[in-house]
From TrEMBL:
<dbReference type="InterPro" id="IPR029787">
    <property type="entry name" value="Nucleotide_cyclase"/>
</dbReference>
<dbReference type="InterPro" id="IPR050697">
    <property type="entry name" value="Adenylyl/Guanylyl_Cyclase_3/4"/>
</dbReference>
<dbReference type="GO" id="GO:0004016">
    <property type="term" value="F:adenylate cyclase activity"/>
</dbReference>
<keyword id="KW-1133">Transmembrane helix</keyword>
<keyword id="KW-1003">Cell membrane</keyword>
<dbReference type="GO" id="GO:0035556">
    <property type="term" value="P:intracellular signal transduction"/>
</dbReference>
<dbReference type="GO" id="GO:0030313">
    <property type="term" value="C:cell envelope"/>
</dbReference>
<feature type="domain" description="Guanylate cyclase">
    <location>
        <begin position="76"/>
        <end position="208"/>
    </location>
</feature>
<comment type="similarity">
    <text>Belongs to the adenylyl cyclase class-3 family.</text>
</comment>
<dbReference type="InterPro" id="IPR001054">
    <property type="entry name" value="A/G_cyclase"/>
</dbReference>
<feature type="transmembrane region" description="Helical">
    <location>
        <begin position="15"/>
        <end position="34"/>
    </location>
</feature>
<keyword id="KW-0812">Transmembrane</keyword>
<dbReference type="GO" id="GO:0006171">
    <property type="term" value="P:cAMP biosynthetic process"/>
</dbReference>
<protein>
    <submittedName>
        <fullName>Adenylate/guanylate cyclase domain-containing protein</fullName>
    </submittedName>
</protein>
<keyword id="KW-0472">Membrane</keyword>
<dbReference type="Pfam" id="PF00211">
    <property type="entry name" value="Guanylate_cyc"/>
</dbReference>
Length: 328
């Protein structure tokens, strides 16, 4: 063969195959870079408004963790809402309403994202967020609780300015729940959102709605309390059946007062609640009245009124102490 090539005055350098391989490798590397760059830009454009830059970087580095088609995940969900927003907005001009909402929603959104949460959506003045999707977030119930407490502290700071400018502050309620939900892109072929759906999402919304009834700023399910741990001044509020659910749910608040007096109050509350659950309503009434007179907490007044009603109309034998809410 070499003789034939020599007769044709042709010579093939031994470097030629190596150069071809190098060119092919360079081309493949460049194409891989383009694919990764497109993927990076897609993830950034799709999630930069939902999650923190750190979570976006994690999704870019580990794309296998991203499942847009939908998956069942253990998540912690947060709903918050401004109480009496319609009445409040009637006192302001449309421009003032927009300015107030912008000033309120901006720091709340930042707190959620800084604590590894995913911003789902705004529903008027309401906020919906969740943890542990699209990227896994260890300790997500605790982070949701920490975020909620930080939101309340930020609200107290904002209200000082709101009262000065508008003549009033705003109050919010926060509902927290943990459980399995379906997470992914949902909507039509033309318009969709990365969000989550399921019974646990609905329950979280119900808990937020009950914050006004119980006069609490935070209400959390038992699953959130179990996941977040006992490092908070938890107060069991009630065992309830919410509208649309048959199984009772134990709900908790976090006492925002601290110190020996707060601990003594919590102990007295637990004793009063035990009397109520044992259907010893006259003793429970005395305990709740004393607590309300001591602290002014409207939760105690709510239970005192329940006791009066139970004394007038005793529950049937075998009463389980569960309160049924018939409205959302």
């Amino acid at each position: 063969a070499q003789a034939s090539l020599n007769r044709l005055d042709m010579y093939i350098s031994p470097l030629t195959p190596l150069m071809a391989l190098a060119a092919a490798f360079t081309l493949l590397t460049f194409l891989k870079f383009l694919r990764e760059e497109r993927r990076r830009r897609f993830v950034q454009s799709a999630f930069s408004h939902y999650v923190s830059p750190q979570v976006v970087d994690q999704l870019v580095a580990e794309p296998e963790k991203l499942n847009l088609s939908g998956e069942e995940k253990d998540v912690t969900i947060l709903f918050s809402d401004v109480r009496g927003f319609t009445t409040m907005s009637e006192k302001l001009t449309p421009t003032q309403v927009v300015d107030l909402l912008h000033e309120y929603l901006t720091p709340m959104t930042r707190l959620i994202r800084e604590n590894s949460g995913t911003m789902d959506k705004f529903i008027g003045d309401a906020i919906m967020a969740f943890w542990n999707a699209p990227a896994s977030v260890p300790d997500h119930p605790r982070l949701a609780v920490e975020t909620s407490l930080a939101m309340l502290r930020e609200l107290d700071r904002l209200n000082a300015g709101f009262r000065e400018r508008y003549g009033f502050g705003i109050e919010i309620g926060i509902g927290l729940n943990r459980g399995m939900a379906r997470v992914g892109n949902f909507g039509s072929e033309d318009l969709f959102d990365y969000t989550l759906i399921g019974d646990n999402v609905n329950l979280c919304s119900r808990l937020e709605g009950l914050t006004k009834y119980y006069h609490q700023r935070i209400l959390a399910s038992q699953a959130v309390r179990d996941g977040a741990g006992e490092g908070y001044p938890w107060r069991e509020v009630d065992r309830v059946r919410v509208k649309g659910k048959h199984e009772p749910v134990t709900i908790h608040s976090i006492m925002e007062r601290e110190g020996p007096e707060a601990r003594a109050e919590l102990a007295r509350w637990n004793e009063a609640l035990a009397l109520y659950r044992a259907a010893r309503f006259e003793e429970a009434l005395d305990a709740f009245d004393a607590l309300e007179g001591f602290t002014g907490d409207k939760l105690y007044g709510l239970y005192a009124q329940r006791c009066r009603e139970m004394i007038q109309n005793p529950p049937p034998p075998g009463w389980d102490g569960v309160f049924e809410h018939t409205s959302k």
